[in-house]
Amino acid sequence: MLALNTRRLIDSGAFTPGTSPSRPTAQPDVCRPARPVVQLLYVRYLAAHPVDDIQCVAQTRRRDRCTQMLLRTGETRVGVWTLVPATASQGQLALPSEVMAVYDLTALPYAEQLRWRMQRCSAHAATPSAADLALADWEPFDPMRHHAHIHNRLPNHVRRPRRNHHQHGTGTP
Q: Do residues 141 and 95 touch, judged by C-beta distance below 8 A?
């Protein structure tokens, strides 16, 4: 009951938990899952890194791993974050009334979804003869096994702190 009451107070903005003193308050919180669930080619995968940190796996001419990211420079909206039911596949029971945030790439053209699935930057997707220096980091998503990576709210780029009405003198007690 205490947890439910606390959650209700936090959600309504009546209670703002204190921040730790070691955390700098000048930096805004960036809300992004460390291992997001990505949907491409109508299959859900668990990524090994945040969406904007997924690196190309192709080998360069110098025999190093390509340093380019899948998300092209200047692109901010390739996929769409959406809340979907956290359903299981292959005959498993679904999680009861739970939703999860998924980075959905299914609106992209088929070739672009294949590029993401192969985990190659746009330059190496055009040259299929380039060898892969690393394995693609996609892991088929299983909601029962990867329950710790289910986020029930949409990530945002910068989380703004809630205003406490009592501190600013604009609200009623």
A: no
DSSP state of 59: B
Place of tokens 């060898």: 131
Of 99, 85, 104, 89, the closest CA to residue 41 belongs to: 104
pLDDT per residue as tens digits for the range 22-78: 444 444 445 678 899 999 999 999 999 998 889 999 988 888 999 998 887 666 668
Question: Considering all CA atoms of the chain, what is the largest pairwise distance in Å, rounded to the nearest integer?
Answer: 67
Neighbours of 45 (CB within 10 A): 22
Instruction: Tell me how far apart the alpha carbons of residues 84 and 132 are, in angstroms, rounded to a whole number.
Output: 33
Tell me: pLDDT of 122 over 90.
no
The candidate with the shortest Cα–Cα distance to 42, out of 117, 146, 128, 148, is 117
- Give the residue among 4, 35, 8 at the shortest CA–CA distance from 100: 35
pTM of the predicted structure, to 2 decimals:
0.66
Do 50 and 33 form a contact (C-beta atoms < 8 A)? yes
